Amino acid sequence: MRQITIISSSVREGRKSHNVSLYFQNYLIENKLATASIIDLKEYNFPIFEGTFKTLINPAENVLEFVAKIKSSDGIIIVTPEYNGSYPASLKNAIDLLYEEWKHKPIAIATVSSGPFGGSQALVALQFTLWKMMAWTIPAMFSVPSVDKAYDENGKAMDKLNSDKLAAIFITELLWCIEADRAPQHQQSL
């Protein structure tokens, strides 16, 4: 079974993007598409790193756990809010901690906002950062405008039919990339 890790990137009080992370975890498990776990950056409470994982002399236990989860994942879903036209510093800090672990990793980006645009500027900023890390970002998008009205604190979609329809397209694209990444001809070309 595929292992998908969902990164819940907001560490703010009252965050609503975490509800979308819970939705994806529930969706993947209920539809038996993958095992799914959430990396909640709020729980990790990382310090501001002064270097990459490879340069850390005595990395903390939670850093080692984070690195292991990213490495062992077949694919990643990043759920991020848009803050001031970009994504949270907590996510940038976690991404910059690693380098080779992101290379060719299939990554799907879900963005949320409290306004009508669903985090479109955060998507562009995050995609550019991940491209620089040589990650494989999928072309499908999952954007959630007015997130506070779209999902409850348990990850339940207020419009389940529409959310599941959009999630099916989004997840199908991620799973396709995971399978393509596993293909023998792809592995030989690396």
TrEMBL record:
A GO MF label: oxidoreductase activity
Enzyme Commission number: 1.-.-.-
Domain of life assignment: Bacteria
Positions of the NADPH-dependent FMN reductase-like domain: 4-146
Record keywords, A-Z: Oxidoreductase
Record-linked InterPro entries: Flavoprotein-like_sf (IPR029039), FMN_Rdtase-like_dom (IPR005025), NAD(P)H-dep_reductase (IPR050712)
Keyword Cell wall biogenesis/degradation: no
PANTHER family listed in its UniProt record: CHROMATE REDUCTASE, NAD(P)H-DEPENDENT FMN REDUCTASE LOT6
Identification of the protein by name: NAD(P)H-dependent oxidoreductase
